[in-house]
Amino acid sequence: MQPNPNQDGQKETLFIDAISQALWEEMERDPSIFIIGEDIGVYGGAFKVTKGFLDHFGPERIIDAPIAEEAFTGMAVGAALMGMRPIVEYQYADFISCAWDQIVNVAAKYHYRTRDAVPMVMRAPSGAGLRAGPFHSQSPEGWFAHVPGLKVVMPATPYDAKGLLKAAIRDNNPVIYFEHKYLYRRLKEPIPTEDYTVPIGKADVQREGNDVTIVTYAAMVQTALAAAEKAQEKGISVEVVDLRTIYPLDKETILNSVAKTNKAIMLYEDTRTLGIGAEVSAIIAEEAFESLDGPILRVSSPDAPVPYSPPLEDYFLPQVDDVMNAIDRLSAY
């Protein structure tokens, strides 16, 4: 569980501001860090995460790049191999696919091939809910979690957004940091003002419960918590496990929770088939089968592109009622 947000030495912070703070503080701490991406300088980034950075850190550390994701990702790989710590910003996570070859065939494999460190972070605003249509709303975390050599993190709270980004920047090999843009200006909480990190690969139990486990991450943590609150009114105690890191997965926390509740739901915004939900379900089936009292259920988006129309996007995304239906179905066992 996170530290008590009411203790002294904490400041109320938006999710997006937690990301900006992590970048700023790390750049102040380590002169080898620079950021490269489209419109991150004068414009301050597509979502204003780097607003004011150019004036403070200068054009050698805040580098505006042309629309050429593969080229500037490859440049970042080369800089990392030369001892720098580059941070690549993609305007939308959807465009990270343009840099696929540099990420999966170069950055991810370099350490395996040569033992050289490749300390770089790739930041990508992902997820739906902003009515941005099929090319600006995808959840690509599953693509990269399948690639050996990459770490994939996806915070759900301002506290984790700051701590995980700092941990990613200090990591000596490539980390893809997906930040759910729906949370940017909707989620606020007190976070410590002093320096801290959140370890990569460690999940968090956001809410403790005894009857059903929901394993989830990113914006769906809020959906899971709302469903858990609703279930409590019916006398069903739901535990919510926030993965925080998609790869490597924290199997111990997942399995400990399922061993306690004996029932598991995997909730995720990505499309259903062959995604994170399938992997987590397989882990539970292989290693906690004797603990289960019922089937492992998946609540996800359907296997379709993200719709542009607001009613269709709402239908596409998992809602609290969808999670409640799964909780009710599982509680019957």
Topology summary:
Blueprint: E1 10-14, H1 15-29, E2 33-37, H2 53-57, E3 62-64, H3 69-81, E4 85-89, H4 100-114, E5 121-126, H5 141-145, E6 151-153, H6 158-170, E7 175-180, E8 188-192, E9 204-207, E10 212-216, H7 220-232, E11 238-242, E12 245-247, H8 251-261, E13 264-271, H9 276-287, E14 297-301, H10 310-316, H11 320-331
Helix pairs in contact: 1-6, 3-4, 7-11, 8-9
Commentary on this structure:
It is a single chain. The protein has helices at 15-29, 53-57, 69-81, 100-114, 141-145, 158-170, 220-232, 251-261, 276-287, 310-316, 320-331, and strands at 10-14, 33-37, 62-64, 85-89, 121-126, 151-153, 175-180, 188-192, 204-207, 212-216, 238-242, 245-247, 264-271, 297-301. It is of the alpha/beta class and 333 residues long. The strands form 3 sheets. A 7-stranded mixed beta sheet has the order 3-2-4-5-7-6-12, sandwiched between helices. Helix 2 (53-57) links the parallel strand 2 and strand 3 (62-64). It starts with 9 loop residues before the first strand and ends with a helix. 48% of the residues are buried. The model is unreliable at 1-5 (pLDDT under 50).
